[in-house]
Amino acid sequence: MAASSALSLEGLQGAAHANALPTALAAASFGVVFHQFIRNIEFDALMYHFMALSIAAFVGIAYTYFSLGELSPIGALGKASLAAASFNAGLIVSIGIYRLFFHRLRRFPGPFWAKLSRFYNARLAAKNVQYFKEVEKMHEKYGDFVRTGPRELLIARKSAVPIIYGPNSECRKSTWYGQTGNDPKKCSIHMTRDFNDHRLRRRAWDKGFSIKALSTYEPRIKAKADLFMSQLSQRSGQPMDMSAWSMFFSFDVMGEVGFGKDFNNLTSGVEHPAIAAVHEHMTMLGVLSNVPWLLNLLGSIPGAAAGYSGFFNWCGSQIKDKQKSWDPEKYPQDIVSWLLKAFNEKDVSSSPSEEALHDDSRVVIIAGSETTATSLATILWYFAKYPATFKKLQGLVDKAMPGGVAEWSYDKVKSVTFIDDIINESLRLKPALLTGGYRVTPAKGIKIDEVYIPGDTNVFVPMQVIQTHPRYYKQGKEFIPERFGERREEMGTDEAPFLPFSLGAYSCPGKNLALLSLRITVSHIALLYDVGFAPGETGKAFDEDVLDTFTTTLAPLQLVFTPRERK
Ligand code: HEM
């Protein structure tokens, strides 16, 4: 029976009366034909509709068998199940054969199962939620170009960085960014895949991070740092979980400069319930984001994202409060006010809908606080682990501000370039995004050194791997902040790949805000405290148990802060 006739009335009538074998063969052939038909379509975006259609088709076929044939309801269901199973078998076998033997990436080495399905990567990620380590293992085993998915390549070459991420790159955001939905009118800037839509929206965002805007944020972040220091002082000599406290600090900073509001996390010293809800689901995200269409599918099922609803509602209420309290006549004082201004004025750079505006507000909090918190906690971990480096920093801040914190000014902090060397070295070794962003190559493909990468291939340069690679960094796994300072030339730092904030059109707009926050806090801590591991804390768990949840989820880190004795 021809595959096409299987769907016609006569075909179904015939199938209802026929033996199982012709039905199975016809459905399997239809599965193969269907695969050929969808092979060049980005099917990820259609998965939800496909699933819904599959269920409807199954019910329809079973009903038709029952009404046209001489089958009992159970017999009709059985035969429809046979047809469905055969269709899926034909589809899956066709996909498998194509991916293994005919796909444009077939010549690239990689794990056998990764070539067949991204569920393999989800399984790797599910082991310990440390996908970045799995990526490193794949690179060590298969080389610089590894097929990590049916249409995905890992590329561990420095020359790939400007071509994939640089300002002139023709690569765009990949299907990874379709995981929360495929409607560009409803998603955040981070998930906006259309290049022009993204470029326009970035204008509103970039205004919130301009030099003028940052100068208004500086004293407000300093006030948060002062509050943070007073909490350290109240608990001096006692163990404090700095993974948690770094988050309280950066969450409050995002409240202040993101929304112009006090989120009161530093005062309460307890994780905000909205953030706690997000953290609880980070592990699931770390695993499922390896199969973006599945995450998208699950998110489309009513109630499936209920775990996040607390956070979503809370962010929604923050935006609504802001819309009420906001004065359009006043020069915007925070990031969300810039977004609201564009939205109210119906500017081309505006979030395209109320939903997109809400999604953007969530990005302000997650992208802004998680990353900075992770980076701050990591720096403090390095201080406890390398006391000599911390002593050196204390000597330098003392020299810049001999009268201590009373003489603190941001200009003086900027003169202590060793602070930036430490921040850079921490972000090199333990970047806030361990694996990094995924891009898709343009139709004509790209060339990385001697290797041609076909068009429409998802590609990524694993961030931690490339930033610690012995080929590019001398003593690449060691903490040597001076490689960004006085030893820059000797260590060849300028030639080495470094992209903790990514590069080009999709790079982090919050980079300067993050650096501002980190410089302010680090300088205060160095001026005021000695830092060490709490009794019983070795720092091993913090080092080894980190979770790759796109942004990083940290293990607890118990540190003790003791006020410095000034001579
Ligand atoms: C140390 C701190 C930070 C690091 C290491 C960092 C890193 C990054 C990286 C690597 C990306 C690119 C992600 C991708 O390719 O998918 C990114 C994007 C982004 N970051 Fe940051 N970030 C930090 C702080 C911040 C802050 C404070 C904000 C403020 C709200 C922020 C807002 C964003 C936004 C909105 C995007 C999406 C940009 C776009 O798609 O155009 N980040 N960040």
TrEMBL record:
Cofactors required: heme
Positions contributing to heme binding: 508
Keywords on record: Heme, Iron, Membrane, Metal-binding, Transmembrane, Transmembrane helix
GO molecular function, one term: monooxygenase activity
Iron in keyword set: yes
Transmembrane segments: 20-38, 50-68, 80-101
The keyword Transmembrane helix belongs to this UniProt entry's keyword annotation: yes
Similarity section: Belongs to the cytochrome P450 family.
Protein's name according to its UniProt entry: Cytochrome P450 67
